[in-house]
Design goal:
Helices cover 33% and strands 20% of the residues. The protein is α/β, with parallel strands linked by helices. The chain has one domain: Class I glutamine amidotransferase (GATase) domain (Rossmann fold), CATH 3.40.50. The radius of gyration is 16 Å and the shape is globular. The structure holds manganese (II) ion. Residues 133, 144, 167, 169, 186, 192, 206-207 line the site of manganese (II) ion.
């Protein structure tokens, strides 16, 4: 039995971020992966060594991405960014994509993937939604339906082309970066999952499977990702 190492960027020292980081760690461990937290303030060599050890990477939730990263000025409703995370995670994502290692992007992570591919975000969807997309109180259950492309990895792992998901975002992917495609959307048409063209294993969801721990199929996303990491890890030797 092999326990592939998954790199996860450090989310921050606040109690809420520590709680969220723990949720990701638990789901990855339950899927048979071991987690290596990647610290943005470590030395460049230590970081490179840590990144090399990882068979796959999970990009977690977090604050809004600074709008200048996708060529816009901040608009009303855009929340305080974390520029250190933006810089670190966008650099890390480049390294991961070049190495073609398995990738799982969640929440902010999915938005980061879109921005890395040249896409843009709607800075605030609060007044443009039919369902409550920012519903922290119901994070363990489902808030809105999504429709999944039957040819997507996310649909294969959830074993369905429809699902109901939780929702903890107030921004949405707008223009989709070239090289990505929409694997799931909400009833209003907001992208809820993205995948990368011609890439060994990529999964990017706008919802938060790490909170839906009572829903067995959602844990299947972590299982599928961990399995892809296990296979990559065997290739790494
Ligand atoms: Mn949503």
């Amino acid at each position: 039995m092999l326990y592939p190492t998954v790199g996860v960027p450090f989310m921050g020292r606040d109690l809420l971020y520590r709680y969220q980081q723990y949720k990701y760690t638990r789901c990855l461990q339950r899927a048979g992966a071991s987690v290596l937290l990647l610290m943005p303030d470590s030395s460049e060599e230590a970081r490179a060594a840590a990144i090399n050890r990882c068979a796959g990477f999970l990009f977690p939730g977090g604050p809004d991405i600074r709008p200048d990263r996708y060529g816009q000025k901040p608009q009303p409703g855009c929340q305080k960014p974390d520029p250190v995370r933006d810089t670190f995670e966008l650099q890390l994502l480049d390294v991961v994509l070049a190495a073609r290692k398995p990738l799982f992007c969640i929440g902010r992570g999915m938005q980061l993937l879109n921005v890395a591919f040249g896409g843009t975000l709607i800075q605030d969807i609060t007044d443009k939604q039919e369902y409550p997309h920012m519903d922290f109180a119901n994070r363990a259950s489902a808030t809105h339906p999504v429709e999944l492309d039957p040819d997507s990895v996310v649909s294969r792992l959830l074993k369905s082309d429809v699902a109901t998901v939780n929702s903890l975002h107030h921004q949405a992917a707008d223009t989709i970066g070239e090289g990505l495609w929409i694997a799931a959307d909400s009833p209003e048409g907001y992208p809820e999952a993205l995948e990368i063209d011609d890439y060994p294993f990529s999964l990017a969801v706008q919802w938060h499977p790490e909170y839906m721990t009572r829903v067995v199929t959602q844990q299947g996303l972590f299982q599928g990702f961990a399995e892809a990491c296990r296979q990559f890890s065997q290739k790494m030797g």
